[in-house]
Structure formats: C-alpha cells, structure tokens
C-alpha cells in the first residue's frame, strides 16, 4: 500500500491521488485503533486526523512509513522528535489557513467593538476606523490582517520576539515595531498570533497585559497558554479591558474552579479561525502534492534500522479489513489508476 487515508478527503484530491498511487481510503479507520495500527504497518505514507496520536510506539510498528500528512490543525498529537529520529516527515500546509485566520481576526475585532445585546442602551459601540491595531507575533496571518485594516485608516504597530526592531521587514510590512508593554499601553485593539513555545507560557501577564489601554479589545488565534490567566481575569473583571476572544482556548479554561470561570467579556472558541472550506481545500492539495513527491522519491522498503513485526517474509502485503462504515468507507486497497471509491465524505461545514 502506498497511501493510507484515514480521514474524510475532498473528492477531487482523492481522485488525483488515486490516479498515482495504491490507496486505502477509510475515513472512519481512526475510530478503530487495532485496524488503524494494522493499516499503518503496511503504508508508506498516511493522512491522519488531528485526534490520532502518533508516538514512538506507533512508528515502531509502521516500518514502511515515510510521511504523515495532517490537513487540519488540532490537538498536537504527533511526537515530532520521534518522527525525526525515524526519518518520517510530518507534512502540513502551513500557509493554507492564512486568509481564513486573518478574516476571522478582523471579524472578531469588529464584533467585539460593538456592545453585547445586554449592554444596548448602556454602552456605545466603537468603529475600527482610525484605531491603533497592535499585532503580537508577526505571522503570515497577522501580516495579512495588517493589509486588511489599512483601508479603515488604522495605525498598525507590532511586536515579535524573533524580529529585531531594526529589521527591514518591518518597513516591508508597513508595521511600526514597538515594545510589548508599550503595545498594550497604546493599542485600541490587540491581535495575538504569536507561535507558542513553552518558554512563552504566561508571557502576556503582569508586565504588559496589566497595563493595557482602558477600553481595549483583544483577539487571540494563538494558544491561550500565552496568557497569565489571573492577570487576564483581572483586567477583564475590572472592565479595564472591554472584551477578549480566545480561539485556541484550553478545554478547561472556563471550567468551575478556574480563575477565568464566568469572567465577564471573555469569549472562547475551539479553533474556528482556520476552519473554512477554502482553507481545508488548500491544505488538502498542499499535503497531497507533498505526499505524492515523497512517495515517488522514496523506495518501497522498510526504513533503515526497522523490521516488520508481522510481515517478516517477502509475501505480498495483505489487504486490511475496513471497519463498519458508511458506503464511502472503502475497505479495498486499489492499484494505481483504479476507480475511486465514490465521492469523499463531506470534509467541511
């Protein structure tokens, strides 16, 4: 088997891959761990949903595996160090979600600048025009957002710990570099896209967030672990910060007993920013093309230093039984060029 696809995939992408490689397409296979493990032991590459954990044990069984494709983001369930040691490439299309994330941030900002329904008649909304927008983390998405807000007449300031204030890229981006505390003191709107690393845990806290400009609104499409939760609760609870929208909030962020439980002005969503039909299709094509390259350029043999646990002989690999599923969950391993197994399951809302 060349390629295992264990998640729903758009029909055009599926057919394109099917014309080039021997596929096993079973969108529900991730719900059957034993069958998934058996299929992975025969696959040279795999597309796996974000909820599927990939660790050293998984890779030890998947001796033919050369690449793992992830179409959408989600819980970080891949042991990247183990993949690197095994010589397995983790394939993602990182730029596919940029337009979606930038649009989401803009829409969220416009929403937060208006009063909540229960505040009508008591609080007046605000317009984006002539506001100062502060960007924390100069990612592709925040740079796109900078372009989107300029027609409103906004001033754009930014901070990124990896880009020095003298770097010429700030001029290219038309963003004024500024210290983090000063950004919070100055901006009417703050948009956070900073990539999360453990050293950044709680970096937005007492030294900067606590000094936020009165009436500020905040949108974050990065990890909520960037925030010191107690400080965020205080600035929202006091009304100094009007509202905040966190789109990658930890599951228990507002659970009873947590400092952000029932904090006024806080909205959380589970990674909605990147979830659009268009971004998923861009990502699917990007991942598919890279997997195609890998499959065409690597031999169909077990990785160096590994051996099959259950296929030690030179016998042909046997087909993997498909789990009980709907009519589009194919259980067959098809040779290259064989007809696709019907239309793909709906892969986006």
Topology:
Layout: E1 3-5, H1 11-18, E2 23-25, H2 33-40, E3 45-47, H3 56-61, E4 67-69, H4 80-86, E5 89-91, H5 98-112, E6 132-136, H6 140-149, E7 155-159, H7 169-173, E8 176-177, H8 180-186, E9 189-192, E10 216-220, H9 229-237, E11 241-246, E12 266-268, H10 277-297, E13 333-334
Parallel strand pairs: 1-2, 1-3, 3-4, 4-5, 6-7, 6-9, 7-8, 9-10, 10-11, 11-12
Antiparallel strand pairs: 2-13
Helix pairs in contact: 5-6
What does this structure look like?
One of its GO terms (molecular function) is NAD binding. This protein is α/β, with parallel strands linked by helices. It has 2 domains: 152 residues, Rossmann fold (3-Layer(aba) Sandwich); 170 residues, NAD(P)-binding Rossmann-like Domain (Rossmann fold, 3-Layer(aba) Sandwich), CATH 3.40.50. It has 10 helices and 13 strands. The strands form 2 sheets. Strands 8-7-6-9-10-11-12 form a 7-stranded parallel beta sheet, sandwiched between helices. Strands 5-4-3-1-2-13 form a 6-stranded mixed beta sheet, sandwiched between helices. The longest helix is centred in the last third of the chain and has 21 residues. It is elongated, with a radius of gyration of 24 Å. The relative contact order is 0.18.
């Amino acid at each position: 088997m060349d390629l295992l696809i264990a998640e729903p995939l758009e029909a055009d992408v599926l057919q394109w891959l099917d014309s080039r490689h021997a596929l096993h397409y079973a969108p529900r296979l991730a719900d059957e761990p034993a069958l998934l493990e058996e299929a992975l032991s025969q696959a040279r590459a795999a597309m796996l949903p974000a909820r599927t954990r990939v660790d050293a044990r998984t890779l030890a069984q998947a001796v033919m595996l050369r690449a793992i494709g992830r179409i959408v983001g989600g819980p970080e369930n891949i042991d990247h160090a183990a993949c690197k040691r095994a010589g397995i490439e983790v394939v993602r299309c990182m730029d596919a979600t940029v337009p979606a994330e930038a649009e989401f941030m803009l829409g969220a900002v416009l929403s937060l600048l208006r009063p909540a329904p229960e505040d009508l008649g008591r609080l007046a909304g605000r317009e984006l025009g002539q506001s100062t927008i502060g960007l924390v983390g100069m990612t592709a998405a925040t740079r796109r957002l900078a372009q989107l807000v300029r027609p409103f007449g906004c001033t754009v300031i930014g901070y990124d710990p990896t880009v020095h204030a003298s770097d010429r890229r700030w001029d290219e981006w038309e963003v004024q570099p500024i210290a983090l505390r000063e950004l919070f003191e100055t901006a009417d709107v703050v948009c956070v896209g900073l990539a999360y690393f453990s050293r950044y845990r709680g970096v937005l806290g007492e030294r900067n967030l606590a000094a936020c400009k009165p009436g500020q609104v905040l949108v974050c499409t990065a990890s909520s672990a960037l925030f010191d939760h107690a400080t965020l609760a205080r600035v929202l609870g006091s009304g100094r910060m009007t509202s905040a929208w966190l789109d990658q909030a930890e599951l228990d962020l507002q659970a009873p007993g947590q400092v952000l439980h029932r904090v006024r002005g806080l909205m959380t969503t589970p990674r909605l920013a990147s979830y659009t039909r268009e971004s998923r299709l861009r990502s699917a094509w990007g991942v598919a093309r890279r997997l195609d390259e890998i499959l065409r350029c690597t031999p169909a043999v077990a990785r160096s230093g590994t051996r099959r646990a259950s296929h030690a002989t030179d016998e042909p690999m046997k087909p993997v039984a498909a789990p009980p599923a709907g009519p589009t969950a194919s259980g067959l391993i098809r040779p290259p060029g064989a007809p696709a197994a019907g239309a793909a399951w709906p892969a986006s809302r």
